[in-house]
Amino acid sequence: MRRIQRLFHILAGAAALVSASCDRNEAKPVVYLEVDSLTLAPDPSRGTSSAHVRSVWVESEGTYLGVYPLPARIPLPVSDPNATVRLYPGVEVNGISSFQAQYEFYGPYTRNLNSAYGQTVKWPAGGAAVLAYESWAQIVNVEDFESAGIQFAPTPRSDTVWNRTQSERFPAPAGESHNASGMVVLRPGQKIFEAITQQAYVLPKSGQSVYLEINYKSTMPFNIGVVANENGTSTQQTTVTFRDKRVWSKAYVNLVTEVSGFPGAVNYNLFLGAVRTDREVADTLWIDNLKLVYR
Question: Is 11 a domain residue?
Fold first, then answer.
């Protein structure tokens, strides 16, 4: 019994020494970084600057410092309060708020802190647009409903066709103007709308990222997907189903599974479809600014 008591005393003493040693380690000084939002700089050659950055991955001095939902107040335990910090923008993939990923096609926001320990730095100062597409990003403006003709052609299954609308068009970001958006109305007696791009696109495979960016709002669910065209056959695959959303939203649709899943495909069309859910009143879908983005 005495041996056991003596062992307890030894262990307790060791624990006290470890605790005391830990208490003497001072916390590393930090600079606080506040980031409210990140926007995209206008570039007419690359389509609308509409963006929806929801989070940032933070890196400095070769060290990953975590991911933070926006707006964020980020403690930075840097060795130099003038260190360079990089913010890698993150987006909701396929409109799922819990599925956030770095969007590799937007370049990181990079600058020096120019601060002191304990101080707070706010980026971007004055709310200026701070992001741009990477120079290597391939961007294809599929449809913006501004030109004559519409790239998405209704299929024979459709009970209705596109309308151009100006009354409820997508609200253009600062510095841009849009005259119209695409609108689909399914009235009582009409049930299905389906459209496919008239052009087929050659897209990268082997697991390389391919995204479709889109602005939308809708009173009914709708699907977006890919038609893979192999020699002599075409296969239609749905990528995501969006639920109804009564305000204009931005979505980043990841097409990598559907594109790379058909390595023998010559090219790919995009399709969009909706089914009316309300038997008594019309359902409406509004779409704008569809663009493919890939390496």
Answer: no
What whole-number distance in Å separates Cα of residue 50 and Cα of residue 175?
Answer: 11
What are the residues facing 67 on neighbouring strands? Answer: 57
pLDDT tens digits along 102-123: 999 999 999 999 999 999 999 9
Alpha carbon distances (Å) from 122 to 38, 112, 125: 12, 12, 6
Please check whether residue 184 is in contact with residue 275, taking contact to mean a CB–CB distance below 8 angstroms: no
120/187 same-domain check: no
Residue range 229-279, pLDDT digits in tens:
999 899 999 999 999 999 999 999 999 999 999 999 999 999 999 999 877
Residue 266's domain comprises: 138-294
- What's the CA gap between 48 and 165, in Å, rounded? 18
Q: Look at residue 5 and give its three-state secondary structure.
A: helix
Residues recorded for the chain: 295
Tell me the Ramachandran region of residue 199: left when phi exceeds 0, alpha when psi lies from -120 to 50, beta otherwise: beta
- Which amino acid is present at 178? H
Structure tokens of 62?
């070769």
Q: How far apart, in whole angstroms, are the C-alpha atoms of residue 272 and residue 30?
A: 49
Based on the domain organization, do 182 and 37 belong to the same domain?
Answer: no
Which tokens go with 282?
């019309």
User: Is the full-model pTM beyond 0.85?
Assistant: yes
With helix as H, strand as E and coil as C, how does 62-82 read? CEEEEEEECCEEEEECCCCCC
Q: What is the CATH number of the domain that holds 193?
A: 2.60.120.200
- pLDDT averaged over every residue in the chain: 90
Partners of 32 in the β-ladder: 75, 120
